[in-house]
Design goal:
The protein folds into two domains: about 5-60 and about 365-410, Urease, subunit C, domain 1, CATH 2.30.40; about 60-360, Alpha-Beta Barrel (TIM Barrel), CATH 3.20.20.140. Helices cover about 30% and strands about 20% of the residues. The protein contains 14 helices and 17 strands. The mean pLDDT is about 95. This is Peptidase M38. Pfam families: Amidohydro_1. One of its GO terms (molecular function) is hydrolase activity, acting on carbon-nitrogen (but not peptide) bonds.
Length: about 425
């Protein structure tokens, strides 16, 4: 239940200033940040917590997750009974919240029923922003049938464990986009390139025709939202951005000219480097098919270079992870990987204000500001000096708050 809390002597760090704001006092009530001051805030009814030596941050935001991906083998995951897939999702989301992620954007698989379950308090987890099922062409990145499985692809469209649905041709793409929006999708995701996890599409494959992508973009715009696209190769990224795709997922093989195009068109990148490290180290042992294992290094080896290329071009980069199955536990390690080439403050921005911009919730989440949702974490120490304080399954987070309610509270210890 929401209560009135005053955080005293807080060092606020949300990415908007290079070193944060020191010695601030923050009052939380009714699920929102009600007051921020450089002087003590007095209240007879509020609980007061001294954060001297600790850092107050907005709840973290992961813009590329698959909460229904309980198994690494996504073809098998799509065959799970819905009840089992839902229990996997509940466990995965609870773990995300325990790591300090108070909002996640699911880019393929989650349905509005999971959003309702969270909002009704039936399960514990972050705020969930969904695209419903990702759209893919026959043989594309969400088609897991393989070469000898000739079932009608619709068998998986309505299964909770399936990350996507198949649509071929302009009219079918329009229908699929409209249908996902009808079912509660807040944006549309398309598979516009080959992928690692799918069996029949090499990385360089282009997904959908130009006309199909343009039609999906039009439908998203008609619904006052945007299109996110699975993209690796420079050719695929440039094509998608020219056709109006706003959210570029992965982008490992991008080149400088295309990064400049992204900046010009206002597209936002969502790199997901940690998943390739996890897949390389653990994928095979956790059931990733051999055809997928063989494709990992095609994208993994260019990951850090892609960050530098996009930074040089001024492209906004949101935080994403794209983990599967038991590898979800590596979610926070993306901070450390990015920190190898990016300044810590930019990595923090990617999971706060920049992530909120991509999701379309600027001013509501991802910052410590009067009127914003009281989604907050308290870090023991200074993440600017050590990004690993945001890892280790929330070990260094003494408090996690979502909508003004503590989901973890070790502040008295």
């Amino acid at each position: 239940m929401s209560q009135s809390i005053i955080f005293e002597n807080a060092r606020i760090l949300d990415g908007r200033s290079p070193q944060g704001e020191h010695d601030r006092h923050v009052r939380v009530e009714d699920g929102r940040i009600q007051e921020i001051s450089d002087r003590p805030i007095r209240s007879a009814s509020a609980r007061t917590v001294d954060l001297k030596g600790r850092t107050l941050m907005p709840g973290l935001i992961d813009c590329h997750v698959h909460v229904v991906a309980g198994l690494v083998n996504l073809g098998l995951n799509a065959l799970l009974p819905d009840t089992l897939a839902a229990f996997h999702a509940a466990r995965i989301m609870k773990g995300m919240l325990a790591r300090g992620f108070t909002t996640v954007r699911d880019v393929g698989g989650a349905t509005h029923a999971l959003v309702d379950a969270l909002e009704q308090g039936l399960v514990d987890g972050p705020r969930l922003v969904i695209c419903g099922k990702a759209l893919a062409q026959t043989g594309g990145h969400a088609d897991f049938r393989g070469r000898y499985d000739n079932r009608d692809p619709d068998y998986q469209t309505r299964r909770l464990g399936s990350l996507g649905r198949i649509c071929d041709g302009v009219e079918a793409c329009r229908h699929a986009a409209r249908d996902e929006i009808r079912q509660g999708a807040q944006f549309i995701k398309i598979m516009a390139n080959g992928g690692v996890a799918s069996p029949t599409d090499p990385i360089a494959f282009l997904g959908f025709s130009n006309d199909e992508i343009a039609a999906i973009v039009e439908e998203a715009r008609n619904a006052q939202t945007y299109v996110s696209a699975h993209l690796y190769t420079d050719e695929a990224i440039a094509r998608a951005v020219k056709l109006g795709v706003r959210s570029v997922e992965h982008a490992n093989l991008i080149e400088p000219a295309t990064a400049a195009l992204m900046k010009e068109r206002g597209a936002i990148a969502c790199p997901t480097l940690v998943t390739y490290e996890a897949l390389k180290n653990e994928g095979e042992s956790l059931g990733l098919p051999a055809t997928s294992v063989a494709k990992i290094d095609d994208v993994r080896l260019r990951g850090l270079e892609s960050l530098q290329i996009m930074r040089d071009a001024g492209v906004t980069m949101a935080y994403g992870t794209d983990l599967l199955g038991e590898m979800h536990r590596h979610q926070s390690e993306e901070f450390v990987i990015r920190g190898r080439v990016l300044p810590a403050i930019e990595v923090i921005r990617s999971a706060t204000v920049d992530a909120a911009e991509l999701i379309g919730m600027s001013g509501q989440i991802g910052l410590v500001e009067t009127g914003a949702h009281a989604d907050l974490i308290v870090v023991d120490g200074d993440p600017l000096a050590d990004l690993s304080l945001l890892t280790r399954q929330g070990q260094h987070l003494s408090a996690i708050m979502k909508a003004g309610v503590f989901v973890k509270d070790a502040l008295a210890q």
